[in-house]
Amino acid sequence: MAVRPTVEADLRRILAVQALRAFAYGFGIVVLGTALSRSGLSDVAVTIVFTSMLAGMAIASIGVGLVGDRVGRRRLYAGLLALMGAVGIVFAFAGSVWVLSLAALTGTMSTDANESGPITSLEQAMIGQAPAQTRVRVFGRYNAIAYLAGAIGSLAAGGPAFLHRVWHGAPTDQRWLLAFPVLGLACVALALSLSPDVEPDEADADTGARPLGRSRGNVQRLSALFATDAFAGGFVVASFIAFWFGRKFSASQELMSVVFFAGGLLQAGSSIVAARVGARIGLLNTMVFTHFPSNLLLMGVAFMPSLGPAVVMLLLRFALSQMDVPTRQAYIAALVDPRERTAAAAFTNTSRYVARPFGQLLGGVLMTNVAVGAPFVVAGGIKCGYDLVLWRFFKRVPLPG
Asked: What whole-number distance in Å separates Cα of residue 268 and Cα of residue 146?
């Protein structure tokens, strides 16, 4: 089946928004982190800001799931992107932890270039309009663009310091976050140019119905499983991995920045490969059969005797660990009815955002009281269990679309 011209144009615009957003978030994460480290705020205050970001993504995603299709996907999409730009202005000038936290609770300032709360949920629902045979490839490109643009944005965040060395009047602080309203306006323009085809079909839309109907049970089971996976992922977030390599092997910041940049490139490439594999062997098979070995590699990092083998093991893990992301997104879009896609994406994403911080907290406890490499082993073990349970529950569930 050929893709309708309007659908193809809409998908290109959504991918363009994803590129601009991911660049902004990759840039903003580094700039904001550096600015907060120099701000004089206490560790507790900084933790409150970042926790507010995670909480905001979860709260706003729930709101999108409940009312997204009633408000209209295009209208809500443009509004959230405009809000992202406005929040960037607040972050560029505010110094109060409470002002920053209130702005973060909008859910439009992300801690990750690839997943960003309510905006991501809307994009996944709209990408679901793609024909079933091309959908996984679009999701593969969607994630690959995020990884690449986010990595480029993070590299670009070194530009302000370089510019300051050349021109001493150039700012080096959080005022560079004024890039957000500029990029946000470009995103809003793209969002407003989307066609009505991104909305649910009138035949599927029922404003009086609950957001989830036929698929409620499956979405609830998936949400619980995805929360388990995200909880385990919280043990080994990027900041912890950098800290662990420095602690165990005295790895430099420069080396780890190169490692994570290389990891981002591997993840981008694997997103494209995952789409091809998913089209050949099936979405669920790709999710499980790539994710399980990546978790064994994650556990293996803790047992490496020196820096070189540990870095190789980590990069191998990066090459596989995100192959389940585009296939997971395509699987959800195929599993539920078209009118349920916004709610399904929002609720499954929310479960991940809510669970992840608890893994971060327990990871520190394990490292202190059990062993320095314990978070890798526990995270990998929980994730392997997640893969097995996912396979057990859903291998016989049919995909209607």
From this structure: 8
